[in-house]
Amino acid sequence: MNTINQSVLFLPGTLCDERIWLPIWQTLNIYERLYSPLQWAQSLEDMLALTEDRISQAQGKVHLVGYSMGGYIAALSALQNKSEIASISLIAYDPFGLSNEELSTRQSLLKALSKNPKMKLGRNRLAQYFTQAELEHNTHPQTVIDMQNDLGNSTLVNQIKSTTPRQDLSTQLQSLDIPMQVIVGEQDFIAQANNVEKFCQSKPSANLHCLSGTAHMLVLTQANKVSDMLAQFISANSN
User: Fold this and answer.
1) With a threshold of 0.85, does the pTM exceed it?
2) With DSSP H G I counted as helix, E B as strand and the rest as coil, what are the percentages for the chain, rounded to 5?
């Protein structure tokens, strides 16, 4: 088990709760573990307020770890609270914003949900999160299905509307003087690896990890690797 003697704040992705981080938390012994419950938020302002509240609770500077939508909120929060952030780890997040394809998918999803509020997450949508091999590993897809069933489509609609489209933060993040780590799955269709790599080329100080054989849900499917990366990076950037 890795030990982190620091304050670390975790931010979840769309339609996720603490369960998205559980496999990683189980491998980490963290001095002060904080969590921003973005699933409670009704708007982008709520998400930022929840996160700022957790930042203010930290004992000293906090290390931000944001996954997907949580990466977007972590980036915005770091830009707004620079003096209180020790480092930022962005996982499965594209600083350039959502692709046109993903924007179209979300618009279609909102239309479908307006017609059928009880619609369930289909296999086609799951296929955007996992590789084919990962889909056959029932535990990980089931975690995503369980979170959707428990949080409900109203949460999904609120989160999509609150964070779509996403502001292009690439230029602001390039000038952000805070240690940064970026982790992406090679087969991620949402935060595409080539975009993330392009961002890191313009910010050489950022630590880039592109994991092969995995897609958007790498915090579930590659929890041990991501845990090691977080522990090493945070330890290297601790006061």
Assistant:
1) yes
2) 50, 20, 35
pLDDT in tens, the chain (239 residues): 899 999 999 999 999 999 999 999 999 999 999 999 999 999 999 999 999 999 999 999 999 999 999 999 999 999 999 999 999 999 999 999 999 999 998 999 999 999 888 888 777 788 889 999 999 877 899 999 999 999 999 999 999 999 999 999 999 999 999 999 999 999 999 999 999 999 999 999 999 999 999 999 999 999 999 999 999 999 999 87
Note whether residue 51 is domain-resident.
yes
On whether residue 109 sits in a domain, the answer given is: no
For the record, the structure tokens of 5 come out as: 């003697």
- Tally the domains of the chain: 1
In the sheet where 180-185 sits, what is the strand order?
Answer: 28-35, 2-11, 62-67, 85-91, 180-185, 207-211
Looking at the domain assignment, is residue 145 inside a domain?
Answer: no
At 85, which CATH number?
3.40.50.1820
What range defines the domain where residue 169 resides? 2-99+159-236
